Amino acid sequence: MSYLVAVPEALASAAGTVAEIGSAVRAASTAAAHPTTTVLAAAADEVSTQIAALFEQHAQSYQAISAQAATFHEQFLQALNAAGSSYASAEAANAAPLQTAEHTVLDVINAPTRALLGRPLVGNGTDGSSPGQAGGAGGLLIGNGGNGAAGATGQAGGAGGSAGLLGRGGNGGTGGAGAVGGNGGNGGLLFGSGGTGGTGGTGAAGGIGGNALLFGNGGAGGVGGNAAAAVNGGHAGAGGDGGAAGLWGNGGSGGAGGHGLAGADGVNPGSNGASAGAGTAGASQTVSDGQSDTRAFGADGQRGGTGGTGWAGGTGGQGGNASATNTDPVGAYVRADGGQGGAGGTAGTGGAGGTGGAGGNATAVSSNTTSHSNSITATAGNGGNGAAGGSDGGSGGTGGAGGNATTSTWQYDNNTAYGGNGGKGGDGGIGTTGGTGGSGGAGGNGGRGGLLFGDGGNGGAGGTGGTGGHGAIGGTGGNGGNGGTSNSVDAGDGGDAGRGGTGGTGGTGGTGGAGGNGGAGGLLSGHGGTGGAGGSAGDGGTGGIGGTGGHGGNSGGTGGVAGASADGGDGGDGGAAGTAGSAGSGGTGGVLGSAGSGGALGGAGSSGSQGGNGAHG
User: 32 Cβ partners below 8 Å, 6+ apart?
Assistant: First the structure.
């Protein structure tokens, strides 16, 4: 009896190839039909005409044969497709009972052990199906452990199932956010490697690799989860340790550590709306007499109060007003000096500098209408200077306005009125420093090699440190105070503006994670594992932009000069690079092996770039 072996897939492929050949032949016959069936005679003589007719007759015969061949080709193609379909149907019909029989036999074999021990005798363990569920154990005789399921938020990944006598342990499931990865399952009692540990959830450690029990390699440790804000304090997860080998085999490699969190950008807190108390105003003085010398002096205002955290400094006290009036009809010396405005109070952290107090007004008047010997002078007080903005981006305080000066307007009097100058605006405060980048997670340690033979596992690499945050913008410079008015030609000058604050310094980069140590080699023969490389240091953050300069104050009028606007602040310095992670140590070797080499030191990070300068006021 002869046997025929047919592969349905091969028949289907052959049918496709035959169809392509038929298409190519038909295309060639069609292209040749016109040129060969309409041959022109080379000349008008009888011989040439007969030769052309002979070629046309042969071409027509070829076209007839080609049509018959195309019909046969189509029939052959249909038969080939039908044969392939028949074989495929027969194969499916024959396979179904065999598959059913296989499952039936396995169910019968596994029924006693499932009833007694909850695991099959032959077959793989089931994978975990619900969040965090462990994988099922493999068959007692032959079978791999099932894989653990991933955990939900805050739930550890499921552990991998262990193998029986022969088989590989299942892999651990990935941990949910903030939870560790599942441990890998152990390999078979006789032969089989341990399963790989699951990846750690956000900010959590990776799972430990499964152990090999007699012959086989330890499973690799899971990778640590990367850091994230508000999860496990923003820390990166460490890599899981590699599993140990049993009697003969290599230890598993440690998992890599997670990457550190980027530092938060510096944010200027701003003022909370509160302000310290205003400085006490200077006492005013009014003098009116008939003496030959009449003088009045306003007292200076006091500095504004110091603000607490987030508070603006208090406004400086206003200078006292001075009013001197002489009633002597013959002649007199009359003088009035307004008090100086108090300086703005010191700002708290993040608060605006206090506004300078206004200068006191000065008024000098004489009742003399007959003599030209009067000397009448009114000098108004200058505005107080605005205070500098608090650190962390506080804006500078506005300079106080200069006081107004007024004297008698009688044409023969020697009158001079000096308007007060505006106070200088306070400089903006330095911007907030960017946050420091988070440290990378440590790499897992390599697993121990077999007790007799086997190399130790390599240590896992440390995670990269996070980048430092950007520095915040510097505070805006305060505007200069306006100059005071005068009824003569000596109005007060406007105050100069405050300079913009320096941008905040960029944050320092995070420290790289330490590399894991290599595992020890077998006692008799085995090399120690190589230590893991340290994680690279995080880059420093970019410095903040300098604050905008303030605007100069307006002059009080004729004779006064407007204050100068100020430059923007300097850009903040870039943050320093973090520290590179330390390298892992190599594992010890066996009697016939050598110790493992240490890992490489982590790479150096880069310093952050300087921020741009602020705009001119």
Answer: 59
Between helices 46-117 and 8-37, what is the axis angle to 10°?
A: 170
112 backbone dihedrals φ, ψ, rounded to 5°: -60, -45
Identify residue 277 by its one-letter amino acid code. G
Backbone angles phi, psi at 290, to 5 degrees: -105, 15
**Chain-centre distance of CA 312, in angstroms?**
33
Burial of 481 by CB count in 10 Å (0-12 exposed, 13-18 middle, 19+ buried)? buried
Assign 62 to helix, strand or coil.
Answer: helix
Instruction: Write the single-letter amino acid at 60.
Output: Q
Q: Do 83 and 76 touch, CB atoms closer than 8 A?
A: no
How many Å apart are CA 419 and CA 556, to the nearest integer?
7
Q: State the residue for tokens 């807190």.
A: 269
Q: How far apart are CA 120 and CA 117, in angstroms?
A: 8
> Interior CA angle at 606 toward 600 and 610, to 5°?
170
Distance CA(383)–CA(483), nearest Å, equals 8
Three-class secondary structure of residue 199 per DSSP? coil
The DSSP string of 596-608 is PPPPPPPPPP-PP
- The CATH fold assigned to 8-117 is Helix Hairpins (1.10.287)
Reading the block at residue 609, the tokens are: 């770039």
Residue pair 338/382 in contact by the 8 Å Cβ criterion: no
Residue 182 structure tokens: 């599942």
Rounded-to-5 percentages of helix, strand, coil across the chain: 15, 10, 75
Q: Please say whether the beta carbons of 392 and 269 come within 8 A.
A: yes
Domain ranges of the chain: 8-117, 358-365+376-435+443-584
Gap between the Cα atoms of 585 and 588, Å rounded: 9
In the numeric block, which tokens belong to residue 546? 């300098």
String of b and e for 77-114 (b: at least 16 CB within 10 Å)? beebbebbeebbeeeeeeeeeeeeeeeeeeeebbeebe
Taking the C-alpha atoms of residue 532 and residue 447, their distance in angstroms, rounded to an integer, is 12
Is there a contact between 325 and 284 (Cβ–Cβ < 8 Å)? no
Distance CA 275, CA 394 (A): 13
* Residue 558 CB neighbour total at 10 angstroms: 13
Q: How far is CA 50 from CA 36, 47, 55, 441, in A?
A: 15, 5, 9, 96
Question: Can you tell me the distance from the alpha carbon of 491 to that of 62, in angstroms, rounded to the nearest whole number?
Answer: 118
Distance between CA 458 and CA 531 in Å, rounded?
6
Nearest to 421 by CA among 386, 388, 380: 380
Cβ neighbours of residue 214 closer than 8 Å, sequence gap 6 or more:
188, 189, 190, 191, 246, 247, 248
pLDDT, mean of each 10-residue run, the chain (617 residues):
52 59 62 59 66 67 69 67 67 59 65 76 89 92 93 96 93 96 95 96 96 94 92 87 94 96 90 86 89 86 87 93 84 87 94 95 82 79 95 95 86 77 95 94 95 93 95 95 89 89 94 95 90 95 94 88 91 94 93 90 91 89
* Torsion angle of C-alpha atoms 303, 305, 311, 313, degrees rounded to 10: 0
CA distance 560 to 233: 60
